Amino acid sequence: MEILKELLTKTSITYVQLVDWEADDIIASFVAQNTQKSDLTFDIFTRDKDLLQLLSQNTNILKYIKEKITLYTQQNFYQEHDFPPSSYVDYLSLLGDNVDNIEGVRGIGPVSAKKLIKQFHTVENVYQNTEDLPDNIKNLLIDKEELVFRNKKVISLEKKVLLPSLNYDFD
Q1: What structural domains does the chain harbor?
Q2: Contact assessment for residue 95 and residue 126, using Cβ atoms and an 8 Å cutoff
Q3: Percent over 90 (pLDDT), the chain
Q4: Among 12-26, 71-85, 86-100, which is the least confidently predicted range?
């Protein structure tokens, strides 16, 4: 890590390192706190799919998967998932995330999770409407309600991290 800091300093690239915060939360906070500058576009390079929840009109994700870089935009995310990036946390809350060791609802796969999120938008709405679901899905969800809401809390990125005051040069 020290070598990277040294390299960034020598190249005049500003970096932020905060104790007790994950890089994802720092990135999410930086984007959230600077989106009012409407002429800015943020391109985030990552391997972590959790950051897809940040996709917006001015935020893109360059995801490195199996030696290939894929550009995710708000538009192509919607085309692929059939729900907006703002619902991605809810989707993962049901499905889980093997990479981050987050257990999903066993019996709810990508197709069922996508269908639920497309119809109800959030896990809160899913749980408010369990009576409208087939019994097998309803029972799976009721049994794992605590898990799903814990997942949502863990997967949701913090966007209010107090960042150091730096003179960002966006030009």
Answers
A1: 21-81 (3.40.50.1010), 85-155 (1.10.150.20)
A2: no
A3: 74
A4: 12-26
Contacts of 3 (CB under 8 A, 6+ apart): none
What single letter denotes the amino acid at residue 83?
F
Q: Distance between CA atoms of 72 and 80, rounded to whole angstroms? A: 10
Q: What per-residue confidence (pLDDT) applies to 94?
A: 98
Instruction: Kindly state the tokens that stand for 150.
Output: 């814990």
Element (DSSP H or E) covering residue 90: helix 88-95
Q: Which two tokens stand for residue 2?
A: 């020290």
Share of residues in the chain with pLDDT > 70 (%): 96
Q: Which of 82, 85, 81, 21 is nearest to 54 (CA)?
A: 85
Quick one: which of 99, 102, 128, 98 has its CA closest to 116?
A: 128
